[in-house]
TrEMBL record:
Keywords: Dioxygenase, Endoplasmic reticulum, Glycoprotein, Iron, Membrane, Metal-binding, Oxidoreductase, TPR repeat, Transmembrane, Transmembrane helix, Vitamin C. TPR repeats lie at residues 466-499. Its cofactor is L-ascorbate. It comes from Oryzias javanicus (Javanese ricefish). This is Cytochrome c oxidase assembly protein COX11, mitochondrial. It is an enzyme of class 1 (oxidoreductase).
Amino acid sequence: MLLPPSLHCRRACPLLAGCVRTLHSGRPRTLRPLAELLLRRRPPSGLDVRFRSRRSQEEEWRSRNKTVLTYIAAAGVGMIGLSYAAVPLYRLYCQATGLGGTAVAGHDTEQVETMKPVRERVIKVTFNADTHASIQWNFRPQQTEIYVVPGETALAFYRAKNPTDKPIIGISTYNVVPFDAGQYFNKIQCFCFEEQRLNPHEEVDMPVFFYIDPEFDDDPRMARVDTITLSYTFFEAKEGQQTFCFTSARAEGRGGFLRMLLCWFIQLLLFSSPAQSDLFTSIGQMMDLLMVEKDLVSSLKDYISAEEEKLQHLKQWAERLDALSAASSEDPEGFLGHPVNAFKLVKRLNTEWAELESLVLTDMSDAFISNLTIQRQFFPNDEDQAGAAKALMRLQDTYQLDTSIISSGQLPGSEDLPRSILTIDDCYDLGKVAYSEADYFHTKLWMAQALRQLEQGEASSTVDTATVLDYLSYSVYQLGELQAALDFTKRLLELYPTHQRANGNLKYFEYQLSKQKKAEQIEEEDQNQKEDQANEYLPERRKYEQLCRGQGDLMTPRRLSRLFCRYFNNHRHPNYLIGPVKQEDEWDSPRIVRFHDIASEKEMETVKELAKPRLRRATVHDPQTGKLTTAQYRVSKSAWLGSHEHPIVDKINQRIEDITGLDVSTAEDLQVANYGVGGQYEPHFDFGRKDEPDAFEELGTGNRIATWLLYMSDVQAGGNTVFTDIGAVVRPKKGTAVFWYNLHRSGEGDYRTRHAACPVLIGNKWVSNKWIHERGQEFRRRCSLQPSG
């Protein structure tokens, strides 16, 4: 019998052994005393538990439980108290250690006035400026670098501008690189950790008044430091958020450095925003990752250059000393007989070798590690990687792409784009993601692709043939392909004859295969039945994917002859009487129309910029609760923009009302969506069906009577809007809007409007939706007596 892990303890084992000895001996099998000893946490020595009353045991246990509960309650109250006291304690700590506050011991005004500059030590101070994705500011240093000497004050400026039409409050953090130099970098005046409010389109200069402590020159660790980088990062802040400024990072020795790191860590806990999730669901937000990686590559190159320069110094030093050693080894006595040689030998061993040691110990990675630590908060996580992998498989299925096509990067529509290929490691990782989801079909495809690339001679330092064969044999077995599983297992054993799992699987597969051959005819009948069931599985899904591939389009010449283009002024509307809009019929029944050149480039870019910081994983209405919830079948991020937020949003809403003739005052806010890797929205209705009576009850404006869909980007491949019931395909075209009614005039839902957004194969898809509701349309779109009129 397998015992649970909780029974494997030092106290229980001797007692259990005693139980076993008792059972094997001829003595009475009474286990109660031993059980009582086992259950008791600390049995008192010298006391026979068999004569102890049960009542006294219960009282003792009750007393101990009360004590434990008291400690737990006290700890909980203490933690709550510390959470409320975190900010004032943080202020007191930093003031006491010289890492916060406005007055720091040893660095008061008198010291600044009396300190002596070290003129022979010139230091270059460079400036860097960053903004978090949450804040829409333009922020940059006014100067890229200045030269200062320790003990001399200097003044630098940063400039910040709010290009939006709303006030924004920002809070900045800063760091000094190298970290060890931070303890000597003192700011007399700064804007760090203070609320900075910028009104719409306001631009301000922010000064930084600082000096480097003269003791910088006395620290041997700073002997090779001739460049210091001061970096500021602005985050968007809430109204009234209070923070504190590091006016100095001066502290003594290594302890000061550790205190600076501790305060920096506390700042991260208090002020940093969590990393965004679901990054793969929005190409727009993933573009920020390119900038992050570009910055890291630049930082990495700087680090490599610093290491190369350091190694070059060491190499020159070694060559010089090697030449001296060669000269001195020929005649050591004669060499030292020269007084200059003797002096230089003593000098080298006394001072120069110490400088060499300092150079060797100098860590050139401080700047790179600091930058990497700051940027890591914006990195994708494992869920993003798995999501991106599933998106590739979704594209593979929808557009029936072979793994070799995806691996080579030769996707349809990507001829003019930079091409990337998938390595063996990439294919293997895709297979592992599928395997973790029990998706053995895609596991087989991608492990087979990894195996092909291995056989073609591609090298990999992490993936070998045996590992791929192991995954392949199990995956094809799960798919019912016993012969293939047996073949892969035999290949694995040719490479590793002692592979324990493969040897066991070999016998099992051979046994199963022999059984299968005996019942071959029955198996064929079952297989035919499975194929018939597979053909009936998810017919809409199959039709949806066919439409996305352009194979199920039901546009016929006869239907096409009934579709027209025209100039449209919506019954002589004043705004479009002189300049009507271009209208094109996309489908006749239900009627779907497209309006061309409906939004300018500037308007669409403004909408994108407004939405981008607020993009969140797209939500849909839960038919059970009627509330919005995250949908796994919708791979995109969206943001909602009200007409009051920007004049352009209000202008677009008014344009929709003028063109459609419908009242948009009861419509939902403008929803802006950006689709990610393989972004899609599976078949759905925009209106609430009869089995969803509470779908829009909280809005109080009735059902969604119509949909306005504005395409704000062109898509190179994929991304079509398809109507699965009628077989219509609408291709995205930047600056055009598609409009259709979701409800008949009777108020009944038009089930022919069921539609979907195909996965984006190549490109970046931006759309905005305006869902117009029934309330307010009573005299704009009159009802009909016909049920489906």
